[in-house]
Design a protein that fits this description.
alpha/beta; Rossmann fold; 7-stranded mixed β-sheet
Length: 228
C-alpha cells in the first residue's frame, strides 16, 4: 500500500473515530448492514479485519459475535495502538502491524474476512490481488465483507457523488475537520462497484453482491460457496 496512506493514517489516528460520522452519510447503516447480513452460524468464528485501523468495524462484529476470535491487521502503528486500547481485556483479539497486501498469513484460515474503508486505497490491479488473497484465506464456507468507497463509471454521476459527500461533510464537520477530509480524499482510488463484483467472482467467490449503497459508500458481500 502507498506509504503516503500509512503516514496519513498514523497522523490522524487520534481523531479518526471522532470524524467518522462527520465524513460518512448514513454511518450506522454503512457499518451495521454487512454485519447483520453475515450467514455464519458459528458462535466463535475466526475473523480477520484488513486495514483494521482503530478496530471500529471489528467492534461492530463483536457486538453480534462476542466470542469471535478476531485478528486486526493494519500497517499504521498509531491506529493499532488505539485499537489495543479499545480492546483492552479481550484476550480473543490480536494485532498484526503490517501491510495486509503482502503479509504472509502462514496458512491461516478464517471464517469471515472484513474490511472497512481501506481497499479503496489500492488501484484496480491491487484490488484484484486483494480479492484473490481474501479468497485464499477463507474456509470453504467463508464470507467476506468490504465496506468501502466506490466510484460511478459515469462522470456526471461521480461528480454528484462527490458533491453530496462534500455537502455532508461541510454541514457536519468543523472547518479543521473539513480540511482533514479534503486531505484524506486525495489518497482515494475509488473504483466502480460492478467491476469489483466481477473481480470477486473471478477470484473464485460463488456469490458476490452489493448489499448497501448510498452515494459513494457501499458494502460488498461475497461468499466462497454458492448456496446460502
Amino acid at each position: 500500500m502507498d506509504p503516503d496512506v500509512q503516514g496519513r493514517f498514523n497522523f490522524i489516528a487520534r481523531e479518526y473515530e471522532a470524524t467518522r460520522r462527520k465524513f460518512i452519510p448514513d454511518f450506522d447503516t454503512f457499518y451495521q448492514s454487512g454485519i447483520r447480513f453475515l450467514q455464519c452460524g458459528k458462535p466463535a468464528p475466526r475473523v480477520l479485519d484488513l486495514g483494521a485501523g482503530t478496530g471500529l468495524y471489528a467492534s461492530k462484529l463483536l457486538e453480534r459475535f462476542p466470542r469471535a476470535e478476531v485478528t486486526l491487521i493494519d500497517f499504521a502503528g498509531n491506529m493499532l495502538d488505539i485499537a489495543r486500547e479499545n480492546f483492552t481485556g479481550n484476550p480473543n483479539v490480536r494485532f498484526i502491524q503490517d501491510d495486509y497486501s503482502t503479509h504472509d498469513f502462514a496458512g491461516e484460515k478464517f471464517d469471515v474476512v472484513i474490511s472497512a474503508l481501506s481497499i479503496h486505497h489500492f488501484d484496480d490491479d491491487g484490488k484484484r490481488a486483494i480479492y484473490k488473497k481474501v479468497f485464499s484465506l477463507l474456509n470453504h464456507d467463508g464470507e467476506f465483507l468490504n465496506a468501502d468507497q466506490i466510484a460511478s463509471p459515469l462522470a456526471p454521476m461521480n461528480r454528484r457523488y462527490c458533491d453530496l459527500l462534500d455537502e455532508h461533510v461541510r454541514t457536519n464537520a468543523s472547518e479543521a475537520d473539513y480540511r482533514q477530509f479534503l486531505t484524506n480524499i486525495r489518497l482515494d482510488r475509488r473504483s466502480p462497484i460492478l467491476p469489483q463484483l466481477d473481480w470477486l467472482r473471478a477470484a473464485g467467490f460463488g456469490q458476490a453482491d452489493c448489499i448497501f449503497q448510498y452515494i459513494c459508500f457501499a458494502v460488498m458481500y461475497a461468499r466462497r460457496r454458492m448456496s446460502l
